Structure prediction request, 676 residues.
Amino acid sequence: MRPEVRLEDLRVTVTRTTEEWARTPYALSIVGKQQIQRGERALSLDQALRGIPGVTVQNRQNLSLGDRLIVRGAGARAQFGVRGVMIIADGIPLTLPDGQAVLSNLNLLAAGRVEVIRGPASSLYGNAAGGVISFRTEDFAPTPLHAQAQVAFGNYGFATGRLKLSGTAGSTGYLADFEANNWTGFREYNHADFTRFYLTTRTSLGERSELRATGSYFSMPFAENPSSLNEEDARLRPTFVRPFVIAQGAGKSVKQGQFGLAYSGGMSETGKLELSGWGLLRDVWNPIPGRIISLDRGSGGLRASYAAKTRLGELPFTWIAGMDLSYLGDDREEFENLGVDEEGDRAQEGELLIDQRETVGALGPFVTLTLAPSTAVRITAGGRFDLFDFRVDDRLLEDGDDSGERTFTHFSPMVGVDVAANDWLNLYANVATAFQTPTTSELSNQPSGEGGFNLQLDPETTVSFSVGAKGIAAAPRLSYDFSVYVAEVRDAILPFQGPGEEVFFRNAGEVTRRGLEVGTVWTALKGFDARLSYTYQHFTFGEFETIEGDFEGNREPGVPIHQLDLGLSYARSVWLAEGRFRWLDAYPVNDANTAFNWSYGVFDLRLSARAPLGGWELLPYVGVDNLFSARYNGSVVPNAFGERYYGPTSDASLYFGVSVGLPSPIQTSASASSVS
Prediction:
């Protein structure tokens, strides 16, 4: 944290109201524009969220699957996309009603700020056991037009080009960003290319009201999926891909468009109304060994909330009440995979195995109340009731009718207290609950191969107790965030893999998660920041017995006990230089704890500068990921068939680029560089 950052820059909105970062009863982190954008490739969330305690991003370097995002254990089961964490962009949810988020339309190179709640947040957003991550677009340029073009290249076939336009005219601001990317990949069968367009506008409707519209489109013609390897191959020949995977044409093609409209207005000086609506269309064609999955998806939702500041007797009192309503509809077809055609270009569809319509309707009223019995103490209580209606209509009736319905309901309360002990010390504690349903994909993927939904797979519930301290000490120029938590998870949803590449899911009876998180940023000298982030996570099974054995007392797979991130950066005038080191302890990759992903340490560097060029501004940059070519697996497949648990990550990866544009205008507000 830089000493010139003002306290008002540390206000957060991810809690569904505007609050000071230090006065929230949650473990909450902020990441600013410089860490997200400058000198980065922005192909992975790992680059934007690194150094946040309690958060692990497994960068698969596999664009057909995307990152695996884990927050306090939630999300470790994700086969693709993000599970258990609510993702929001400019107030519009990217997480669908069934709890699944796909980040195809998320543009990191246009993001100006990220806010992260670590821990159960179902009382705020529903279906979010791990927490909430909210992305906000960078400030619009105050001039009518600010243009920036960028190109970058690197080894393993990395190439990107983008054009960003931003400006403000009268009461309306806008940002438009187009990018095209290519990635050949470290593995032998790893190629992907995609294009993405993002547009957001904001119009002031008066002194306290505004209307924001966002739209995005993502197209990935086909991303090859090299699959995972056993330990011997991962160590000795990490670029290897099994011939069977290539012969089956494993990969994914995706088209996705999304639109959102959000209104925020002050009905009075002490009240604020927020309304938003969104819609999404997604088309996926996904060959995996044995099967080809074709999915046409449509989804949408509405959200309304009202926040008011008043008094309860003589005490300050704030309340928020609202409702979320959303819908998801999938047309799913699954075919036998006959392998690639004679040209080796495309997997061929065989017999139709599954043809069904899957829908999810979700309704979630919520309320949050905050009372301040004194200037130093605030008490927050909230609750949310969620109703989920999952339905499947079987349209392939030759083998019987597998149509059905599953309805899930749950009330998620929370209570928290925060105490401002002094200017630099804020203490908090909370008890929170979470409710997490299986996704439609998890319900549909049945080991028997039948259609319909898996009737043996149930939602998981979490009760979590957390205490912590956070604050900013001006004299040593130090920001810090410390938290300890214990969470009990009932019916935890865990993955396992069959002979093909398809992943199935089952419930564990009980999982206990204990953790400690420490994050600090110390500005030793002006321009020099030293960062330290440490995470301790000890997650163990309680009751959990399957046909493979009794796993009670074993560690939950996919999550390291120890995780350390160290960073040193210099940002002064036109220069930015940063070195980051991250280390992860060995962790189990199966329920039996008989196989482990080995520990590893990785060092990354980035350097950028700003230079005037006539009437333009030049920003060259260079970076190296995994500088010393450590041999490690950036991702795993828990409980993989054939002990193929490991997803190898590339050796030293060099990239360089340059952006050119009109001189950067003065932003309308400063951005906090990072608070962890």
